[in-house]
Amino acid sequence: MYLSLASQSILLLSFCLFGWALDLYFFHASKVKVFNILEINSKNRIKNSSYRAQTLTVSILLIIYSFFFNYLQNNASSVKEKRKFQLYMFALLVFFILIPSRRFFGNLRSSFLRTLGRVFNIFAICKTEFSDVVFSDILTSCSKVFADLANVFYIIYHSLKTSTTPGIEAELKRILGLENDSKSINHIQFQSPLVNPAVTCVPYLIRLKQCINDFICSTPSSIDRRRHLANAIKYFSSLPVIFLSAFQKDYYQSNNYNQDWFLHFLFYTWLFFAIFNSCYSFYWDITFDWGLEQSSDQNSRSDIKDKTDLPVFDTLSSSNNAVVYDGPFLLRKNLAATWTIKLSSHITLDSIPNAGFILGALEVLRRCIWILFRVEKEAC
C-alpha cells in the first residue's frame, strides 16, 4: 500500500504517542511511579489510569485516522482532490487539538498544549523539568517528520493556490528557494539549502537551549554544570550533520562530484561530524542517560535491601540482565547509524519502498526504549 508523505508524517507522530502509552503501561505493570518522577499529576489534573488509557486511545484513533485519509488520497480522482483530502486531514487534526472543550480528551489536549508552551518558550531561563526533557527528546526523534510536514504544506499550497503572475511566482520561488522537482509533478519540495535543515534543527535547538538553561542555573564548578555543557555539545554537534548534508544535496545537483574539490570537502566534513555525533550520542545515552555502566556494578545499589523498591529492570533476575541491558545496547548501536542516514537529506534509499518511513519508525522504537531506561535512571 502506498503511503503519502502526509500520511507517513501523521503515522510516525501517532507511533510516538502509541509508544509513550505502552511505556506508561509498562511502568505501571512494573510498579514504577513514573507519574511522580515526571510530575504529571500536578500538571494535568488527571488520574494516572485515565491518562494512560486516554493516551493509548488517542494514539490508536490517530493511526486509524491516518490510514483512512491515506485511503481517500489513494483513491482521489485528481491531484487537486488528493491535496484537498490532505488539507482536510490536517485541518481536522488541528481543530481537534485546539477545540476549547473538556470533552474529547480535553485534559490530555490541555496537557499537550501546556507542554508545548513551556518547551517553545525561548525567553524562559530556568531549570528544565524532567518531563520537558523527555518530551523534547521525543521531538528530536520526529525532527525529520517536521521537515516532511513543511514540504507537505507547501505541496498543498502549490496545488490549491489561485493562479498568479508568472513573473511574481518565479521571483517568489527564487527568493524562497522553491522549485518543482523535475521527476514528478506530485513531488514539489523545498530546494533551498536552508529551509529543510532549518526546520529539522528546531527540536535540537530546543534541547540545546534547555541544556544551556540548566548550565546557567547550575551551581558554579559543580559536576552537573559540566555535564549540562557536555550534553549541549551533543545536540550542537547534530547541526553540522543536518546542514552539511543539505548543502551537499543542493551542490551535487549542479556540480560534478569527481571534479569538484569543494564537494569532497563538504562530504568529508559531514562524515567527520556524522561519526562524531553518532559516537558521542551513543556514549552519552549508554553512560549518562541510561547509566548501564552502573547497572553492572553490584556495589552501587547494595545498600538497598528491599528489591521491590528498585526500578523496573533491577527487579529482574541476574540471569536476564544480559537480555535486558545488552539487547537495547546493541539496538541503540545499530540504530545510531540509521538515524544519521535519516537526518542526512543527501542520502537516498530509493530502491527500498517507504525507506524514510521505515527509518523513522525504527527511530521511534529506539526512543521508546530510551524512555524506559532514562526514567529508570532518573528513579535511581
Automatic annotation (TrEMBL):
<keyword id="KW-1133">Transmembrane helix</keyword>
<dbReference type="GO" id="GO:0005737">
    <property type="term" value="C:cytoplasm"/>
</dbReference>
<feature type="transmembrane region" description="Helical">
    <location>
        <begin position="53"/>
        <end position="73"/>
    </location>
</feature>
<feature type="domain" description="EXS">
    <location>
        <begin position="187"/>
        <end position="380"/>
    </location>
</feature>
<feature type="transmembrane region" description="Helical">
    <location>
        <begin position="261"/>
        <end position="283"/>
    </location>
</feature>
<dbReference type="InterPro" id="IPR004342">
    <property type="entry name" value="EXS_C"/>
</dbReference>
<feature type="transmembrane region" description="Helical">
    <location>
        <begin position="6"/>
        <end position="27"/>
    </location>
</feature>
<feature type="transmembrane region" description="Helical">
    <location>
        <begin position="85"/>
        <end position="105"/>
    </location>
</feature>
<feature type="transmembrane region" description="Helical">
    <location>
        <begin position="232"/>
        <end position="249"/>
    </location>
</feature>
<dbReference type="Pfam" id="PF03124">
    <property type="entry name" value="EXS"/>
</dbReference>
<protein>
    <submittedName>
        <fullName>Protein ERD1-like protein</fullName>
    </submittedName>
</protein>
<dbReference type="GO" id="GO:0016020">
    <property type="term" value="C:membrane"/>
</dbReference>
<keyword id="KW-0472">Membrane</keyword>
<keyword id="KW-0812">Transmembrane</keyword>
